[in-house]
Design brief:
The chain has 555 residues and is α+β, with helices and mostly antiparallel strands. Helix content is 15%, strand content 37%. It starts with 21 loop residues before the first strand and ends in a 25-residue tail after the last strand. The N terminus and C terminus are likely disordered.
Length: 555
Amino acid sequence: MPKLAPTHIRPWTLLPLAAAISLCSCGGGGGGTALTTSATPVAAHVSLTGTAADAPIANAVITITAGAPLGDSGASTIGSVTANATGGYTVQAALPTGSVPIFANAVDPTDAALVLTSYLGQSDVLATSGAFTTTNLPDLDISPVTTAALAVYAQTGTGGYAALTPTTYAQTLQSYGSDILAIAAGIKAVGDKLCSPTAAITSTTNLATAIATQANLTGAGTTTLSAAATILGGNCATVLAALPQSIAADPNFGPELQLGDVIDAGIQSVAAGTYQLQGVIAETGRSSTGAAVAATPPAVVTDTSVNVDATGTVTSSDGHVSGAIVGNALTLQITSPTGSTYTFRGKIGSIPAALVTGGQAYAAQGGGSNGATGAMATLAVVLAPAGTNPAWNGITPPNTQSRSDGVNCPAGNFAVRFDAYGPSIGGASVGSCIAPSATGWTMTTPASTSMVYDIEHAIANNIVGLQGNAPSFSAPSWGEVGTPSAPFVLEATGATFTLNGATTNGNAYYVMGSQSVVFAGTQGNALLGMHGNALTQLSESMHNQDTASTQQGDH
């Protein structure tokens, strides 16, 4: 399988990613940078205006490239500018003729080799899309997540960057979301100086490439988080185990793990109408500053009457749900059954028609926080028209494995790998077999697997491919939540997670279309990142119309 040339090696010192670069004017919940184009789609000149922020990056160098990210083979610079003291910038760019992938790159002037990069979409679609406003995305984020996603694409995609499209980018996110989280954790661990690696880190892009390569993403090999810990060395293993859950719950980073962006003017990912909302909120036990806060147990949230109008405005008759859908960017305010109010950002997409009877349903996953305590939290949610029901066995498990990372299951089962991130089970990777029924799952341990690991044990004992001391996740019976009625949410009571001989008891939850299971254990809430398979695939536009001609990726 062809690999892309690695980025050039440069000496550098990492900028703390508490000031991670996000080129975002976040109107409409994750979008709204202004873009104007000439009338012709051929060699169009565009003007991009935004901000280098989370914390402002004074005098950041903003570069727009065509063909490949900055520093990679095939990249050509089509626009560059220095941001002002508050990170603000306007950059002029000349888009090339044809359908060429376009990238945004940011370099910190005090650490000249620090490069974070992101995929913006194809030149021809960008040139004809009109003004980028709060009803016409993308949001142009550049972050550890987007940098990690491109490293994973480089390792797994065929045809090099020339073959990168919004569809292949979205497929990368959905198939390798757990790996992208782990690589982003490696970048953030070093960038925020959360650990002291023994390795000489030359650049974040080189680090991302090295982790993706050592993890052997195209086949069974070491886990990606274990690869990150091995490459970094030092005391980074324990830090890495906790970071992915926090990244997934971040309202800026979390949405970048899901799908791409629809940017055609007037296109909405969700049809106007009235829906029932069902989902799960899980707090991480950390605030946005990293401080420990008390984490409440996961909350199953429901609302029987949520309206989405033609402009994407979201309201509910009881006032417990409000927000906006812009393209496929979703912002929500949700009041939980206990009275806590959460604000979330995420990406929403269409659930495959085979999994729903009675109409088109939509699913979203993202990050946010408790408005009262500041506790970061993840949200997985389904919007389904009244009268629709889940068909958990609507997709037939494959007869042969497809990227199951060596997890071997009998016929009639999906082979699934979970990467566990959280305070009590962070760092472990387990294999499971899922047999779907009309109303839930039966889950068993696979007969054999070449890929179950415990990262902390592996690093402590210098084991790259760990077969012994395997962790396990047991949640045999999954049924639809009945109280409150939430048939698009599965719950497994009496679930257990065993790590290094110690067993944590709890309950587990899965929301249709999401890429992770929430495990509510006795020591807090944790995420089990689900490696991409037929159960997790969403389409970002209405009625599962997922074509490069109508869609655009943003990162």
